[in-house]
Amino acid sequence: MCYGLDRRNNVTDEVHSGDFVFDLIYNTFFKIKKYKQKSSSHVGSNDGSMDRGNWTNKTEYMLSMIGYAVGLGNVWRFPYLAYKNGGGAFLIPYFIMLAVAGIPIFFMESSLGQFCSQGPVNVWRILPIFQGVGVAMVVVSTLVGIYYNVIIAYSLYYLFASFQFPLPWSDCFDWSNTNCSLTPRGSCFTIIEPILTGNMTLWENHTCPEKDIISIPIQSPSEQYWDLVTLQRSSGLDETGPVVWHLALCLLLGWLLVAAALYKGIQSSGKVVYFTATFPYVVLLILLIRGLTLEGARDGIEFYIGSKSNLTKLAESEVWRDAATQIFYSLSLAGGGVTALSSYNKFHNNVFKDALTVCLTNCGTSLFAGFAIFSILGHMAHVYGKPVSEVAQAGFGLAFIAYPDALSKLPISPLWSILFFFMLLTLGLDSQFAGIEVLSTCLVDAFPETLKSKRSIISMGICSILFLLGLPCVTQAGIYWVTLMDQFCAGFVILFVALLELVGIFYIYGGNRFIKDIEMMIGTRHSIFWLWWRACWFFISPAIITMILVWSWLTFRPPSYGTVQYPAWGVALGWCMITFCLIWIPLVAVWKIFHAQGNPWKRLCAVCSPVEGWGPYLDVHRGERYADGGQVDGKNSVQLPEHNHYQMSKQPNTPLTP
Predict the structure, then answer these.
(1) Among candidate residues 444, 445, 447, the one with its CA nearest the CA of residue 455
(2) CB burial of residue 536 (10 Å; 0-12, 13-18, 19+)
(3) Binding of Na(+): at which residues (predicted)?
(4) Of 399, 389, 457, 468, which is closest to residue 427 (Cα–Cα)?
């Protein structure tokens, strides 16, 4: 049931309130329109919806979904986790978690979006009391979008800096300080005053005994370039400092690229992903081939996933937690993007096959990226004469310190650096497209008649606002803000939202009813087919998420960046971010109950049932189960009180017209 707003008409029919947050914002300025029945004229060829829009073809959807799922974490997090947690042994818990949590939740979210052709807020017409879960997804997508584009700005800056020879971080140039060095430094502790020669202290023309050498802390050129040039990093969150203008300009360019790709919604972004979703694979293949030809590459791969795999690590609970967490975050679950992108599918698209393909492709990419990363890190370790364990890092340390350092040691180093950072750029843009599409889809679904023709304005408006909100992240304390938002916004909130999704759909709406909804799209399946999915949806997936939540809570440590600890007010602000994301869940639930009618029990029962008109977006797909807009499998839907100016429609699932 899609609704819009109009300035001219008073409310006479019963209309569901729809998206809570947007209603609060716009209700002061607009009135509700009346409904118009969806006729066959709204149905496009091949099962599509003409008025809401669909993907031009299946390829665009698959590339967009793969681009959304395959992000920076596949390159800079998974390889390090695999090395840290036993190498090849880590694949055992990793693929087990994929089977019992990753694929089932991905299948659920994509099925829900495709079934009702609505974004992550409006899909909760399936269960009005949980509509705050959809609002929480939108808030999370907003906060993640703010800092994620800052990481894209980092990639852009390094991409531009790579058009130099030699690479600016390949040696200690004039921007560095006295702590910069390519080789270790030591001081010889002796009774006689030492004589310092180069990077090693000698004593009376004799090499200092190893037992008397005291190491002097140094930084590599790539580390100093990251801190002193790129970030111009301050001493902590308390010292904000001015805006770093080269990063601000890169941030602006990043948002311009996102706005241009989303100018016409999925119709334009669907064309862009032909390049952005496929180019990273080309680069990874090139880097892998080049890496395998380097001396020391074998050592890197052995550390990553070779003969040095440690099966005893499987007995450690932390390994299983890391595997489950990586699966969850790498598939971008519970962020609203999966639901939003799948909502533009044709109704009878095989959503199960697509979910399986995307999930396996995502995990295969992580595995493949590890070989490309560790083959070159192995060469770097060989050059420095260090074990791979001393050069392997995760996150920013891998993407902007360790790997650029390794690339600077290769012949024609600018070429490899350009390819690598352009790959990071395309990986980031793909994920950002879907995150911003969540926001625009929710707005257009809330007010289709008003906003449908203004897609370009919406996209530019969202990007402009998020650019301004992201400016604190490109100050000299910006990296501390990025780290803070990443740890809090993308942690507890997403896990909690995913748990509520499972509880709401399978325990309140009804797992059997939801399975029947899926079969309306993909056809009837044998009961044996659903045994595995029932087990995962009802028991295994909720148990795993609960385990991760509890473990994360018990092992929580205040965030830090390197050796810099966050002040108490910074940690408190992080918890405020979590509260701001989750507070909408109880607020919307209370608001829904308050506006229902009857005694408290009847009100609770009402908001725990689908709204009138819930079901497939087009009438041609509703079939016998949803033929009556007020009945779902013979059960009554939500009825809101007549005195409420948001009321229900007599016609099922239809847009509003004057």
Answers:
(1) 444
(2) buried
(3) 67, 69-70, 74, 330, 362, 427, 430-431
(4) 399
How many other CB atoms are found less than 10 A from the CB of residue 214?
11
Beta-bridge partner residues of 43: 49
- Residues belonging to the binding site are 67, 69-70, 74, 330, 362, 427, 430-431
pLDDT of residue 492: 84
Q: What are the pLDDT digits (tens) for 85-114? A: 877 888 888 999 999 999 999 999 999 999
- Paired sense of beta strands 200-203 and 564-565, if any: unpaired
Nearest alpha-carbon partner for 335 in 140, 602, 592, 58:
140
Rg (Cα) of the chain, in Å, rounded? 27
**How far is residue 519's CA from residue 335's CA, in Å, rounded to a whole number?**
25
| Secondary structure, 3-state, 317-366 | HHHHHHHHHHHHHHCCCCCCHHHHHHCCCCCCCCHHHHHHHHHHHHHHHH
Query: For the chain, give me the number of helices (H) and strands (E)?
Result: 28, 13
Residue 420, CA atoms < 13 Å, CB-side half-sphere: 32
As a whole number, mean pLDDT of residues 221-238 equals: 91
Q: Looking at residue 112, what DSSP letter applies? A: H
**128, 131, 140, 654 from 590: Cα distances, Å:** 11, 11, 21, 26
**pLDDT on residue 320:** 87
Q: At what angle do helices 351-384 and 511-522 cross, to 10 degrees?
A: 90
149, 432 contact by CB (below 8 A): yes
Contact predicate 608/508, CB 8 Å: yes
Q: What DSSP state is assigned to residue 123? A: G
User: What's the rounded Cα separation, in Å, for the pair 330 and 360?
Assistant: 11
Please choose, from the candidates 25, 124, 119, the residue with its C-alpha nearest in 3D space to the C-alpha of residue 607.
124
Phi, psi of 492 (to 5 degrees): -55, -40
| Per-residue confidence (pLDDT) for residue 373, from 0 to 100 | 87
Q: How confident is the model at residue 308 (pLDDT cuts 50, 70, 90)?
A: low
Rounded CA-CA distance 600/509 in Å is: 19
**Which residue, 122, 90, 112, 117, is CA-closest to 23?**
122
The whole-number average pLDDT for the span 340-364 is: 94
Of 538, 144, 584, give the one whose Cα is nearest residue 329. Answer: 144
Residue 142 tokens read as 């907003």
Q: Which two three-digit tokens encode residue 280?
A: 């990273």
Omega of the bond leading into 166 within 30 degrees of 0 (cis): yes
DSSP-assigned beta bridge partners for residue 635: 632
Token representation of residue 251: 């941030």
Question: Residues comprising the binding site for Na(+)?
Answer: 67, 69-70, 74, 330, 362, 427, 430-431
At 426-460, the pLDDT tens digits run: 999 999 999 899 999 898 888 887 887 888 899 99
Phi, psi of 180 (to 5 degrees): -85, 135
| Mean pLDDT for the chain overall | 82
Beta strands (DSSP E) in 489-621 are: 560-561, 564-565
| The two three-digit tokens of residue 610, written as one number | 């689908």
Q: Which residues, in sequence order, are CB contacts of 344 under 8 Å at separation 6+? A: 52, 53, 54, 55, 61, 117, 266
Q: Work out whether the CA dihedral 124, 125, 131, 134 comes out positive or negative.
A: positive
How long, in residues, is the chain? 658
